[in-house]
Amino acid sequence: MDHTRDNLVNIFLEREETSLSPYAFRTSQTKGRDRYQEPCRLRTEFQRDRDKITHCQSFRRLMNKTQVFLAPEGDHYRTRLTHTLEVTQIARIMARALRLNEDLTEASALGHDLGHTPFGHAGERALQKCFSPDFSHYMQSVRVVEKLENGGLGLNLTWEVRDGIANHSGSIDYCGASTLEGVLVKYADKIAYINHDIDDACRAGILTIEDIPAHLRECLGQKHSQRINTMVTSVIRASTDKDHICMTPEVKAATDELRDFLFEHVYLNPVAKGEEGKAEDMLIKLYEYFVKHPDKLPETYRRNLDKESVERCVCDYVSGMTDRYAIQLYNDLFIPQVWRGR
């Protein structure tokens, strides 16, 4: 018998006890899973959650979901998947520097957008209009991992990873996650999207670096990598040996101002967002169609009709679509096909 393999998890857990910060969350402290699962000999619970997420269908669908630009034709624009990978990389770097639990951080970051709608926040707004004003992509992400994935069984993730997923959104002034690792994912999410959205907006010709106010470039950096480095370094410097996560005041003020600048010049830019109204209308029409014809739902969602409302099942279906799938389905249902004869 290979005793090294049997003892691998114990080695990981012992390493956490001796090397992590006193404020880090230890895997041994986990509240566990909703359903018992035989422990793995080779992976800790959070390492196992990471693998569950990266192998699930919802994770793969992120490759064809909008980040900022709807169903972009160019190969180099971010998608929801590449955004997730960038968030994860930034979060792990900060976790390592702060001696926090990298495995918990990584799992929460990888899962944070699993429930995001097609067409980015336009899809979220559509479902808020037709399903519920309380719909949010972060709580839908929790629903994905608890109820929808794995044939309706969910991924059975640990409580702490689900908590990090549920609390990744919103202002960094309010850090609702129960662990510092979960809070760190919120910071990494902001750092990632602020910087890669600038990059994509410049590629699209909507923005130039010179459009960014000079004092922000002076504080944060002229280049993509410099700005990320400044923000990440700021979090590390301000949070080392602390029981909370924060940024140095000057960098936080500049980061907040840069985010406001992006809202004005990119997120609300009619050139970048001109198609969002069409996307919202399309998703609302798809939602209404399947509410009227629940028998047309795929079996994965139709089987929940005996325990969930029609509206809830349709919302799950629509929110899980990729951009391209939603467009094709809309065309199939509502656009007449050209008659070509025999």
Q: CATH superfamily membership, which one?
A: Hypothetical protein af1432
State the CATH architecture.
Orthogonal Bundle
Uncertain spans: 1-5
Percent range for β-strand residues:
under 5%
Query: If you consult CATH, what is the topology?
Result: Hypothetical protein af1432
Number of DSSP strand runs:
0
Task: Report the C-alpha radius of gyration, rounded.
Answer: 21 Å
Q: Compute the average pLDDT.
A: 92
Distance between the termini: 68 Å
| Shape call | flat
Largest sheet: none
Number of helices: 17
The level of helicity is 55-70%
Number of spatially distinct domains: 1
* Strand/helix succession: HHHHHHHHHHHHHHHHH
Task: Describe the model.
This protein has 17 helices and no strands. It is mainly α. The chain has one domain: Hypothetical protein af1432 (Orthogonal Bundle), CATH 1.10.3210. Helix 4 (80-98) runs parallel beside helix 11 (224-239). Residues 1-5 have low confidence and may be disordered.
